[in-house]
Design goal:
By secondary structure, the protein is mainly alpha-helical. Among the domains are: 281 residues, Leucine-rich Repeat Variant, CATH 1.25.10.10; 132 residues, Arc Repressor Mutant, subunit A (Orthogonal Bundle), CATH 1.10.10.10. The chain is built from 28 helices and five strands. The strands form two sheets. It has a three-stranded antiparallel β-sheet with strand order 2-4-3.
C-alpha cells in the first residue's frame, strides 16, 4: 500500500486572531496548542530554578513565595532534602548586615532589606518543624550570623550610641527583624548546649533582657536563656552511684570532665539579672509568670559545676540557690518569692472563700478551775513593764498602771465568782487601798523626788486627781460612798469610799490587753446565761464530748461538701500552679528546714500566716491534690 500524506492541523494566524477577537480562545487553543494542559514544574522546583537563575525579578518572586509557603504549607520544605534552599535563605538574610559590618551602610537598598526580612521570616517559620530545626542547628555559620545580627540589633535599640544616618530609614525593619530573629533562636537554642560563661549569644540576650520593655521579646528571651543552660548528659556522670561498674570510657570521660575548670554560662547570670526576672512575678500576667518560673526551675536544677565546687553538683546547686535568694545580702528576691509563689500556687483555681465558710457552732464550757476568787494581794508589774510605764507622764502612767493591774467587772461575771470568807468584795476596791497600791508600786519615784529627782520619772499624781482619773481609765467604773451597818444601834454608821466596777487581777497583763479590756463594751445581761446556768449545774472540768464531736463533725462535713475536688491531672491546674509548688517546696526544704536562723522563717510567716492557713482550712483538697505540703504549716503557725 502506497504511503499517503497525513494532514496536520495547524492553527492559522488569521483564524487565531479571529478567535482572540471573539474572546473564545479557551476551548480551541487548549486542545490544539503544543504543550497545552502541562502544569509546568512543581512549585518548589520552580522556586529553586528561580534562585539559581540569578535574575533579580525571579529571585524576588522566589523569596516572596517561600515566605508565603512557610506560613501556609511549611511541610513542603525539608532542608535535609533541599539544603540549597537553607543556604540561599541564609545568604540573602545576612547580605545587608554583612554590608553594615563592612561599613557600607550607604550601599544598602530598601529592596535588599525587604528580601532579608523575607528570608529571615521563612527561616523563622520553617524552623518550627523538628527536621528543619535539627538541620539549622548544625550549621555553625548560621549561629555565627545570628549572633552578628543580634549584636547589631541590640546595639541599635539598647546601647544608645550615635546611629548611622543611612540606617535610620531601616528602623522599622530592624524592629521587625529583631522579633523574627528571637523567634528563630527560640527553637534552635535547644541544641546549643554546654555554652561557656563568655558565650556572645548568651551575654547579648542577658543584656537585652535588662533593657527591653517589649513583653513578647522578654518572654522569648527568657525561654532562650533557659535553653542555653542545657548541658550534655556526660556532665552528670558524677552522679552515678559508687557501686555501679562503669567501663573504662566512662571513667576517662569522668576524669576529663572533672579535670576541667567549670566555665558554664549559668555563672554569667548576676544578681541584677535574677532580680529583673523574679520581679516580673509581681506583674499579674500568666505569660510572664510561666516564662519566669520555667527559667527559675532550670536555673536551680542545672547540674553544671560551679568554679568553687568543681566536683559537687549538690554544692553548686546550693550555692546558686543562696545567690538567687540573696541570703547573705538584702534577701529581696527571697521575700518576693516566698510572697508570690504561694499566691501563684492557687492562682486561677476555683477555691472556697474562707470568709464564707460556716463558723464553728458555739460550745458550752464550764469552769475548769476554782482559782477564780478575787485576789487579796495586788500583782506587781514586771521589771520590763515597769521600766516602760514609769517614764509615762501623768495621768497616762496612772491610767496604764490601773488597766494592767485591775480589770473591769460587770454583773455578768458574778455567777462565776466563788464567795469566800475574805473581806475582798468582787467588783469593788476601796479608794484608800487603790491609792496605797499605786504609791507602793511607784515608791521609788516619790522617794527619789525628795533627794535627787530622776528627770525621766515625772512626779506622781496627787491622791484626789488619781481617784478622779479612775473613771477615765475604766469608763464603766464609778466612785461611791456606802454606809456600813453599825455593830449596835448606838453607834453612828461609818462611811466607806469605794470604786465600783473594778477588781484586782490575778496576773498582770500587757498594755494592749489592758487597754482593750478596759474600753470594750459591757456584755449584755443575758449573753452568758446559758454558760452561767451550766456552770452552776455541771461539775468543774466537765466536757460534753458528744456535743463537741457532733459540732466538729458538722463543721467537717460542711467543709468537705463545699471543697473543690482538685487533682493534678485536671485541666484547671496549670503549669504555673505546679512549677510554683515545686520551687516553693525546694526553697523550704533547702533553706528553712536547714537554716538555724529564725529570720527567714519569720519572713515566710509574716507574708503568709494571715491568709494561707485559713485558705487551706477551707480548701482541704489543696492538700489532697499535693499543691500544698502539710510540712509548710509548721512555719505558718
Amino acid at each position: 500500500m502506497d504511503p499517503t500524506p497525513v494532514p496536520v492541523s495547524v492553527v492559522s494566524t488569521r483564524k487565531t486572531l479571529a478567535i482572540l477577537a471573539n474572546g473564545n480562545v479557551g476551548g480551541y487553543l487548549q486542545h490544539n496548542l503544543i504543550g497545552s494542559g502541562h502544569q509546568g514544574p512543581e512549585m518548589m522546583t520552580r522556586i529553586i530554578m528561580s534562585l539559581k537563575s540569578g535574575i533579580q525579578e525571579e529571585i524576588e518572586w522566589a523569596l516572596t513565595s517561600l515566605s508565603q509557603i512557610s506560613c501556609t504549607s511549611p511541610n513542603l520544605v525539608n532542608f535535609e532534602k533541599t539544603p540549597y534552599l537553607a543556604h540561599e535563605l541564609i545568604s540573602y538574610f545576612i547580605k545587608p548586615f554583612q554590608m553594615i559590618l563592612e561599613k557600607k551602610d550607604q550601599l544598602i537598598t530598601q529592596e535588599e532589606m525587604l528580601l532579608s526580612l523575607d528570608s529571615l521570616l521563612s527561616l523563622r517559620n520553617l524552623a518550627q518543624d523538628l527536621v528543619n530545626q535539627q538541620y539549622l542547628s548544625q550549621l555553625k555559620t548560621l549561629k555565627k550570623h545570628l549572633i552578628e545580627v543580634l549584636k547589631i540589633f541590640v546595639h541599635w535599640f539598647y546601647v544608645g550610641d550615635v546611629r548611622s544616618h543611612y540606617l535610620t530609614r531601616f528602623h522599622n525593619q530592624f524592629r521587625e527583624g529583631l522579633n523574627y530573629l528571637i523567634d528563630l533562636l527560640e527553637p534552635l537554642s535547644c541544641y546549643y548546649i554546654d555554652n561557656t560563661k563568655n558565650d556572645p549569644l548568651f551575654n547579648q540576650l542577658l543584656f537585652a533582657s535588662l533593657h527591653t520593655k517589649d513583653k513578647y521579646l522578654l518572654i522569648n528571651i527568657m525561654r532562650i536563656i533557659s535553653h542555653l543552660l542545657f548541658i550534655k548528659e556526660t556532665a552528670a556522670i558524677a552522679k552515678t552511684s559508687e557501686g555501679e561498674n562503669n567501663n573504662e570510657k566512662q571513667e576517662e570521660e569522668l576524669e576529663e570532665e572533672l579535670s576541667k575548670t567549670p566555665n558554664n554560662c549559668i555563672d554569667a547570670i548576676e544578681e541584677v539579672h535574677l532580680e529583673n526576672f523574679v520581679f516580673f512575678l509581681l506583674i499579674a500576667d500568666n505569660d510572664l509568670s510561666i516564662a519566669t518560673l520555667e527559667f527559675l526551675k532550670q536555673y536551680l536544677s542545672s547540674e553544671a559545676f560551679h568554679p568553687l565546687y568543681p566536683t559537687s553538683i549538690k554544692d553548686s546547686q546550693t550555692y546558686r540557690l543562696k545567690k538567687l535568694l540573696q541570703i547573705k545580702s538584702s534577701k529581696a528576691i527571697y521575700q518576693t518569692l516566698i510572697k508570690e509563689l504561694p499566691i501563684l500556687i492557687i492562682s486561677n483555681l476555683s477555691l472556697n472563700d474562707p470568709s464564707k465558710i460556716p463558723d464553728m457552732p458555739p460550745l458550752t464550757l464550764t469552769k475548769r478551775s476554782q482559782y477564780i476568787n478575787v485576789p487579796t494581794v495586788l500583782p506587781l508589774l514586771s521589771k520590763q513593764l515597769y521600766d516602760i510605764i514609769v517614764k509615762f507622764p501623768e495621768p497616762l502612767r496612772a491610767t496604764t498602771w490601773l488597766r494592767c493591774c485591775y480589770e473591769p467587772f460587770s454583773k455578768a461575771n458574778e455567777a462565776n465568782v466563788i464567795s469566800d470568807s475574805s473581806d475582798v468584795i468582787p467588783g469593788e476596791v476601796t479608794q484608800i487601798s487603790l491609792w496605797k497600791a499605786y504609791e507602793k508600786q511607784f515608791e521609788e519615784v516619790w522617794q527619789t523626788s525628795k533627794t535627787q529627782p530622776n528627770p525621766e520619772w515625772p512626779p506622781l499624781l496627787p491622791a484626789v486627781d488619781f481617784i478622779k482619773n479612775v473613771n477615765s481609765a475604766f469608763p464603766n467604773s464609778e466612785a461611791m460612798v456606802v454606809n456600813l451597818n453599825p455593830e449596835s444601834l448606838e453607834q453612828t454608821p461609818k462611811k466607806k469610799f469605794i470604786i465600783k466596777g473594778i477588781q484586782p487581777r490575778q496576773f498582770v497583763v500587757n498594755i494592749d490587753i489592758g487597754n482593750y479590756e478596759a474600753l470594750r463594751q459591757k456584755p449584755t445581761p443575758n449573753s452568758d446565761s446559758a454558760l452561767n446556768a451550766d456552770s452552776k449545774i455541771l461539775p468543774i472540768g466537765h466536757i460534753d464530748f458528744d456535743k463537741f464531736q457532733h459540732n466538729l463533725n458538722n463543721l467537717s462535713e460542711a467543709l468537705l461538701s463545699h471543697s473543690s475536688l482538685l487533682k493534678k491531672d485536671l485541666k484547671e491546674i496549670t503549669p504555673i500552679n505546679l512549677i510554683s509548688h515545686d520551687l516553693l517546696d525546694y526553697i523550704i526544704s533547702e533553706v528553712l528546714d536547714n537554716n538555724e536562723s529564725d529570720e527567714l522563717q519569720d519572713l515566710f510567716r509574716l507574708y503568709n500566716s494571715h491568709w494561707l492557713p485559713d485558705l487551706i482550712y477551707s480548701n482541704p483538697s489543696l492538700l489532697e491534690a499535693g499543691l500544698v505540703n502539710s510540712k509548710w504549716l509548721k512555719y505558718l503557725l
